[in-house]
């Protein structure tokens, strides 16, 4: 939290450290308003819950954002909101803030959450003004959505249709730009978020939804939020979701997005109740598929190499490039490419003449 202004005119703003690909980016993350007409069962700001209610003034929010950006306190703005009056009303207020910023020369990052039920015309404007936009899916299916937040409208109409519009308008904004824009035009793609553990769900449901979001909807990022009970809500006595479960879902998500894994690959490692083990899912997959290892690094495809535990996309690409002129027969050959430490860690999974078996593949 950062306080700005004089002793008698102070504004408190939340600075959020967003993590992306190993880097932390400071963002002003805020609701435009927490006045809400909905009664989502898990939400701190649900209409029937007593709490302090506040709303930004668009020029003031733009002023604070611009000040923090010029002072290099933030790199961007993450703007979402509760819904008061109707979705279009609050979206217009959000876009008013963005228009003021862009008009005044703000070229920083803008991440905007679209409200369920927002009109297509406003989504089109948002796609031009924002660097990334998204709508919260909230749950992996219609049944859970109706159980938790039916006030937001029908799952298919208010959420899925808007997601389709967002993806289409984001693609249109990028392709219609007459030049490579410095900011906006949804150049960072579309994302969404789901709440985990607020209902009697399981990981397999999130795995299937995640594959659909990445492969069919072409989203750039899927976020998961571990459920935490909020006092004075219908779910206040429900146990919180373990943070370890959220972490394993993120690992699964990146394996689908960046490591050519499919939902069916996780079917062999989830238990009878549909939950992932509390271990690296990539390593768990290797343990239950010993027939796939070791691989020959000289002939294996990129997809086979990137499935090796501890190897990421950049390392896999480096191996593929280097093997064109260098045969990888011994550990010493591989060490020259990826280093001693990583070579030792992947040794059990690759075919080397001095390959060493370790405890990596032993069941735990």
**Overall geometric form:** globular
Q: Biggest sheet, in brief?
A: 7 strands, mixed
- Low-pLDDT residue intervals, each spanning 5 or more residues: none
Portion in beta strands? 5-15%
CATH class of the largest domain: Alpha Beta
Widest sheet, order of strands: 3-4-5-6-7-8-9
Structural write-up:
The chain is 39% helix and 14% strand. The chain is α/β, with parallel strands linked by helices and 364 residues long. The two termini are 43 Å apart. The chain is built from 13 helices and nine strands. 33% of the residues are buried. The chain is globular and about 70 Å long. The protein has two domains: 2-266, Aldolase class I (TIM Barrel, Alpha-Beta Barrel); 289-361, DNA polymerase, domain 1 (Orthogonal Bundle).
Layout of helices and strands:
Blueprint: E1 2-6, E2 9-13, E3 15-20, E4 23-31, H1 58-70, E5 76-80, H2 87-103, E6 109-113, H3 120-129, E7 132-134, H4 142-149, H5 155-176, E8 190-196, H6 203-215, E9 221-226, H7 243-258, H8 263-266, H9 281-288, H10 302-306, H11 313-322, H12 331-338, H13 340-346
Parallel strand pairs: 4-5, 5-6, 6-7, 7-8, 8-9
Antiparallel strand pairs: 1-2, 3-4
Helix pairs in contact: 1-2, 2-3, 3-5, 6-7, 12-13
Quick recap of the structure?
With 364 residues, this protein is α/β, with parallel strands linked by helices.
Notable characteristics:
single chain; 364 residues; TIM Barrel; DNA polymerase, domain 1; 2 domains; two-stranded antiparallel ribbon; globular
